[in-house]
Amino acid sequence: MSASPCVTHRHPLVQQERAYSSPDELIRHCQTCEASTDDDRFFGIRSFHRRTMGKTMRDGNTNRRTLYKRSLNRDFRCVFTANYVQLSDNARESRMPNIRRIIDSFLERQIAPIPALEVTSDQRLALCRQHGDFAVAYSTAVQANLKHFGDDAGYLAYATKMGHTFVLGDPVAPKAERERYIREFVKAAASPCFVQVGRDTAAVLSRLGYRVNHMGVDTHIAFDTHSFSGKRNETVRYSERWLIKQGYAIIECDGTKTQADQIKSISESWRSGRIVSRREMCFLNRPFFPDLSPHMRRFVILSPEGAAIALLDFDPIFEGGVVKGYTAAFKRKLPGTTPHAEIGLTKFAADRFREEGHARVTLGLSPLAAIGASGFTESRLWRGLFQRAFQSEKVNAHIFNLKGQAAFKRRFHGDEVPTYIASKRRTPLEMVALLRLLKTL
């Protein structure tokens, strides 16, 4: 009896499929045919094995691709190069609809209608200036693709995915009114999940029957108690001194010494070396733009030749219409840049904020770091999964460098302030939906 086919290859222009009994046979065919498609992930190759993962990478020629596809339940790797040509409009229209999008669309239609807050970005920013006293408040006001719930006095920012609703951060509203916004949204959205919220919001949700778990820590540097002096911060001071000694310059970017195309080039080069380089994470983060939004600050390192090689952007933290501090939003550098760059940039920016009389700077979320008992009714399953994910070598190597993020921020010896995730459903599907919303999957 002949072996069952393990891989099939479809030529997208003629919509014909042929089965292959071995990887070698598949490779020989793909080297001689023009396998063409505009799908950057599969290039017309489908595997009958469910436990299969693929990785696509350019081979240096804009008209060719190299596909590495590995079957986890068979000990082989298929590697081949296929000609990449543009599909005709008719061929593109004849392809089967994306099943994932069909399922997503179906699940999205199951979400109960939520009253929309019709305010402009300028109005949201005005509310943020009055009440945006937490790290992601500014992002809730300026991040595209977020929806908003509330009224003229305040709002909640949220997004939906796979039939689930996820709130980002605390309400941007007067502190005395935040509980009201939370209760009204929970009622309107039917058990939404709250992500990266503070302890006060977590306490309200706990009273509403939510399970509240740690989801990581945000490193706060409070200038009234923190100093970069002393032995424990010796390496931080050394990084800044080393950069200056080697002829680098650390400046605040005002647009006169760096251009938008230089900034864009740094970001694109940085992304090309990331674990997941084809897409930028969103929701907890927002896409990077070369031009700064209002009230943001950017610090740049210039090489001895005067070229920009690394940057660090900060979002403002407001209180009562006044900037009280900043939170690190984007960190980018060219491949091969010295590791001292990020440390030196962070110290330089923090010292500048201190001199200006601001109260604090936060270094941003370290996801899944320092997970422990939340102090509220929580899901022990989620706590265990978060702890194992943080320690997992596979997660750190192939999805997101959780340990590296936490280790970098701990160099500055700030206060690690817990952030929380709160959910009523606690289903695997909800967690998958969140990971897809973040674009980690």
Question: Any descriptors?
Answer:
disordered N terminus; alpha+beta; Aminopeptidase; 3-stranded antiparallel sheet; 441 residues; globular; 11-stranded mixed sheet; single chain
Q: Quickly give the CATH architecture of the largest domain.
A: 3-Layer(aba) Sandwich
Strand arrangement in the largest pleated sheet: 7-8-9-10-17-11-16-15-14-13-12
* Ends apart, CA distance between termini: 39 Å
- Residue-averaged pLDDT, rounded? 81
Supply the CATH superfamily name of the largest domain.
Answer: Gcn5-related N-acetyltransferase (GNAT)
Give the proportion of residues in helices: 25-40%
Total domain modules: 3
Query: What is the number of beta strands?
Result: 17
The portion of residues forming beta strands comes to: 25-35%
User: Which fold name fills CATH's third level, the topology of the largest domain?
Assistant: Aminopeptidase
| Main sheet attributes: strand count, strand direction, barrel closure | 11 strands, mixed
